[in-house]
Amino acid sequence: MLGYYPGCTVRAQKEDGFEQESLAILAALGIKAQELEEWECCGAVYPMAQDEYVGLLASVRALNQTEKEEKDGLLTLCSACYHVLKRVNVRMKNDEEAQKRVGNYLEMDYKGQTEVYHLMEVLRDMVGMNSLKEAVTEPLKNEKIASYYGCLFLRPQKEINLVDGENPQLMEDIVRALGAEPVTYPYSTDCCGSYHTCQEEGVSRQMSLKLVESARRAGATQMITACPLCKYNLEKCQESMEKEEKLPIHYMTVPIVKAMGGMKTLERKGEAHAYSAENSSQSSA
C-alpha cells in the first residue's frame, strides 16, 4: 500500500475533484493508497540555498512518516508537491551534511530511503498503459487533448528523472490509452508564469495565453495538467474571453474518469477490489 500525501492546495480545492478522482481511479485499478496519519505543507518551493536546511524539514517529516507507517512509497498528485518531495529526498539520499543537520533537528535518522511517486508515474509503472487501456469502457474518440507539463514536473532532469525533460510523452501515452488523440504543440514544457500571477499578473497572463493559443491552433479540444497553479493560470488568462472562445482546462483525471465510465463506475470497481482483497486476506489467515 502506498502512503498518500494530499498537499495543501489539492486538499483546499476539493470542489475541483482532483483528489477524489485520482483516488477513485487508483482504487478502480487495484492500487491501494492511504493518507499519512500526519503531514504538513511541503514548503511549496524547494530551497535553493545549499546551506538552507529548515526548508527540508516538512518534506522529511512526511517521507519519514511514510517509512514509519511501513508504506510502499509516497504518492502525491500535485506537481509542486512532487517536485519538492522528490528533490528533498534526493538531497537526503546524497548529502551527508543534510542528513546530519536535519536528523539532529528532527531527532530521526532519515537518509532518503522512501520512494516518491506521482499519480502519472503510478499509472505508467504500477498499472501499465495496457491495463489502463483495458479499463477504458468509453473511448474518447472525438477528443484532441493537449498535455501541459509545465516546469516542476520535469526539471531539473537529473533529480526528477521521470520523463525526458525535452520531449516528454507520458501524458500523451495516457491520452492514447484513453482513445483520444494527443495534440502536439510547441510549448508543452514552457512555464505558465507560475507565482508571477501574484505580483506581475500581466507577465503570467502573457505566458499562459501563449500556451493556450498554441494548443488551440494545433486543434486541441481541451488541455490537461497536474499542477493546481498551472491550471489556475491557464484558466485565468482566458477569463475575459467569450465562453465559446475559451479552451477547457482540466486536471488530467477528468478524461480518465470519463473514459473509464464515470465516478460511480469507478467507485463500484474500487469497492469490488477492496472486497476481493479483504476476502483474500481472510482466506490466507
Describe the structure.
This protein is an alpha/beta fold. The chain contains 14 helices and eight strands. The strands form two sheets. Strands 2-1-3-4 form a four-stranded parallel β-sheet, sandwiched between helices. Helix 12 links the parallel strand 7 and strand 8.
Number of helices: 14
CATH-defined topology of the largest domain: Rossmann fold
Radius of gyration: 19 Å
Q: Report strand order across the widest sheet.
A: 2-1-3-4
The ordered H/E elements are: EHHEHEHHEHHEHHEHHEHEHH
Task: Give the CATH architecture of the largest domain.
Answer: 3-Layer(aba) Sandwich
Percent of residues in beta strands: 5-15%
**Structural shape:** globular
What structural class results from the helix and strand content? alpha/beta
The percentage helix is 40-55%
Number of strands: 8
Itemize the secondary structure elements and their pairings.
Blueprint (H helix, E strand, L loop, with lengths): L1 E4 L2 H5 L5 H11 L4 E3 L21 H12 L5 E3 L2 H16 L1 H11 L9 E3 H9 L1 H6 L9 E4 L9 H4 L9 H8 L3 E3 L12 H4 L1 H17 L4 E4 L2 H9 L12 E3 L1 H7 L3 H22 L1
Parallel strand pairs: 1-2, 1-3, 3-4, 5-6, 5-7, 7-8
Features:
single chain, 285 residues, alpha/beta, Glutathione S-transferase Yfyf (Class Pi), Chain A, domain 2, Rossmann fold, 2 domains, 4-stranded parallel beta sheet, 14 helices, 8 strands, 49% helix
